[in-house]
TrEMBL record:
Keywords: Membrane, Transmembrane, Transmembrane helix. This is HupE/UreJ family protein. The chain crosses the membrane at residues 192-213, 233-256, 262-280, 287-305, 317-343, 350-372. InterPro entries: Put_HupE_UreJ. Signal peptide: none annotated. It comes from Abyssibacter profundi.
């Protein structure tokens, strides 16, 4: 009876965990982004809007001959539809008065994660004001992870903002630039980067589990001291975040440029390694060094967002610091919630053989599928 009472909650927890992992597989890719730049001078607004071709294909069906390639000719044929779709999901106001926005001739721009349609924008507001309001609704109806990355310049100053499904409206005071806006926006994005990144969370879990339960020949070795476990966890989390910061800084400053496709493929391989290391230990000591090395790869995976914004040095430094503070805070929160439970359950055999072993195999399998998707640029998981 004792064995049965232990297996039932383990089985229920295990099935629930499988559902969470499988249901979240679609969230393990680089989130969809668009890049919006505006220069405000008096009543005039000039700018540019870069929207990923893959997103426009998803929304408008640009691939007319269904050969799985979008050509320049197909884009030109749909130019009115592209401009109309974009302008229908963006509105600018100055002191509450709607500004008339129009689009110029389409161009193609390349960002680190692929080709984008670049839409020149121009507009004139009814009168000069002191406040600009922007309303952004692109892609949110189909992709809750989509982000609109905004850079707005006025009077020689630059501000940034991130449009999300819960922050579709941004307001800017043309008389001042608030550093707190930049700090809060990117701190929030650092938190969000961890919460939506299933690959990020699974990799972190793979590195943290050996701090409480380590595979050994013939069985498992459990951690004895909560203090030692806490120290190991802090080393791993902090090393991972420091590496994140280093990679982000190098890439954003232009000193490290890597194709997003291959970086994301490498991220998938780190997940496979972290999972299999729990079954066939290769690294058993100084896991913080592994966390630092792989953290460089994970950091490079997000660096394209900040580098493509073209932020000025002061704003860039603030955005980097705030983003990494958000990442560190989210990782500590995840560890604070999950590790006490894992530490408490570490001695149960069902935890070792019915959760850790199948869980590591499932995560490794997902990592292999993600690698194939990203390296081959083909859909494996739906």
């Amino acid at each position: 009876m004792a064995v049965r009472s232990r297996w039932r909650p383990a089985r229920g927890w295990w099935l629930h965990w499988i559902w969470l992992v499988v249901a979240g597989t679609a969230q393990a890719h680089k989130p969809s982004d668009s890049y919006l730049q505006f220069d405000v001078a008096g009543q005039t607004i000039e700018g540019r809007w870069d929207i990923a071709i893959r997103d426009l294909e998803w929304q408008l069906g640009l691939d007319q001959d269904a050969d799985r390639r979008v050509t320049w000719g197909e884009i030109q044929d749909r130019e009115p539809a592209i401009a109309g779709y974009a302008l229908a999901h963006l509105q600018a106001r100055m002191d509450g008065q709607v500004c008339d926005l129009s689009a110029g001739s389409l161009q193609i721009e390349t960002h680190t994660d692929g080709a984008y349609v670049s839409l020149p924008l121009s507009g004139r507001c009814p009168r000069f004001g002191t406040q600009v309001q922007l309303q952004y609704d692109l892609m949110f109806d189909r992709d809750a992870q989509h982000r609109g990355l905004l850079r707005i310049a006025h009077r020689g100053q630059v501000e940034t903002a991130v449009f999300t499904p819960t922050r579709r409206r941004q307001v800017f005071d043309l008389r001042e630039t608030r550093a707190t806006r930049v700090a809060w926006q990117y701190f929030h994005e650092g938190l969000w980067h961890v919460w939506i990144g299933l690959d990020h969370l699974l990799f972190l879990a793979g590195l943290l589990l050996p701090t409480v339960l380590r595979r050994q020949p013939g069985g498992f070795q459990v951690a004895e001291s909560p203090g030692e476990t806490l120290r190991d966890v802090l080393f791993v989390v902090t090393s991972f975040t420091m590496a994140h910061f280093v990679a982000l800084s190098l890439a954003t400053l232009g000193w490290l440029t890597l194709p997003s496709r291959w970086v994301e493929s490498a991220v998938a391989l780190t997940i496979v390694f972290a999972a299999m290391n729990n079954l066939v230990p290769v690294v058993t000591r100084r896991l913080w060094l592994v966390a630092f090395g792989f953290g460089l790869i994970h950091g490079a995976g997000y660096a394209s967002v900040l580098s493509d914004l073209g932020l000025p040095p002061i704003t860039l430094a603030l955005a980097l610091l705030a983003f990494n503070a958000g990442v560190e805070g989210a990782q500590i929160a995840v560890a604070a919630v999950t590790l006490p439970v894992a530490f408490w359950l570490r001695r149960y055999r069902w935890m070792q053989w019915c959760v850790l072993v199948p869980g590591a195999l499932l995560v490794a399998w997902l990592g292999v599928l993600w690698f194939l998707e990203r390296a081959l640029n083909q859909t494996v998981l739906t």
